[in-house]
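TASK: fixed-backbone design
INPUT:
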């Protein structure tokens, strides 16, 4: 147990209260809240699921009202009332996985081909992605964060900070798909395919671009908007490439002799 530093007043990064000791007397946050580093990520992996606090609805409210400001404040140190990013992603994914068993499965790939083996590959990928949605997200999250890290390199945002930002924004993508599940249950695939595809691209795109434009501020700089748009576009292109490669491999595996 570390000893408190006497006669040294600390300003809490969460609520702004000045205090002495290891924890804020006003909100309870740890005095030593610094930059996001490997220790923070390891703590997330060890305790993200077991230590579930009551801040998920508070976090969702802040995330939907102004994702950029919420993420900026979280990275700066306002964390005590918020749901942790990894736990947030896992819980939202779990809700989606549970709900998808009671509703019609969402199509991650809306594509019909004259080639039967390609259609078989599409069906297999859609089914697997619905059954293992969290794995899909966790597998693509490091690559997405790497793309944003490279594009926003001049803004001095660390890779781990991008990882946290994209964890929260990936949760928004899941919520968008979750909201779509009841429609998929009552409407057939052909009539809703366009809406499903548009919702899966447009809603996350709006949040990602909005969040990063505000996050890298200050001000409503047009260059921030276009850089955020470019980063999201590159991410979509890379994901399409990964899906296309997977379809190519599967279609050859299931090609009739």
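OUTPUT:
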């Amino acid at each position: 147990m570390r000893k408190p530093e006497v006669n040294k007043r600390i300003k809490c990064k969460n609520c702004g209260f000045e205090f002495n000791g290891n924890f804020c007397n006003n909100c309870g946050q740890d005095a030593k809240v610094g930059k996001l580093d490997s220790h923070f990520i390891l703590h997330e992996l060890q305790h993200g699921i077991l230590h579930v606090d009551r801040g998920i609805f508070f976090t969702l409210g802040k995330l939907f009202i102004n994702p950029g400001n919420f993420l900026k404040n979280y990275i700066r140190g306002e964390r005590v009332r918020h749901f942790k990013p990894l736990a947030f992603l896992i819980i939202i994914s779990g809700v989606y996985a549970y709900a998808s068993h009671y509703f019609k499965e969402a199509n991650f790939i809306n594509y019909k081909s004259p080639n039967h083996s390609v259609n078989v590959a599409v069906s297999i990928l859609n089914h697997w992605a619905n059954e293992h949605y969290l794995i899909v997200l966790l597998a693509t999250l490091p690559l997405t964060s790497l793309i944003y890290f490279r594009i926003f390199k001049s803004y001095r945002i660390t890779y781990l900070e991008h990882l946290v930002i994209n964890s929260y924004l990936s949760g928004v993508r899941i919520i968008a798909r979750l909201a779509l599940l009841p429609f998929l249950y009552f409407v057939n695939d052909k009539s809703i395919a366009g809406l499903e595809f548009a919702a899966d691209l447009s809603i996350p795109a709006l949040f990602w671009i909005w969040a990063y434009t505000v996050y890298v501020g200050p001000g409503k700089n047009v260059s921030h908007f276009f850089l955020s748009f470019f980063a999201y576009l590159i991410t979509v292109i890379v994901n399409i490439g990964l899906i296309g490669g997977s379809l190519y491999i599967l279609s050859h595996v299931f090609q009739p002799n």
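COMMENT: The chain has nine helices and two strands.
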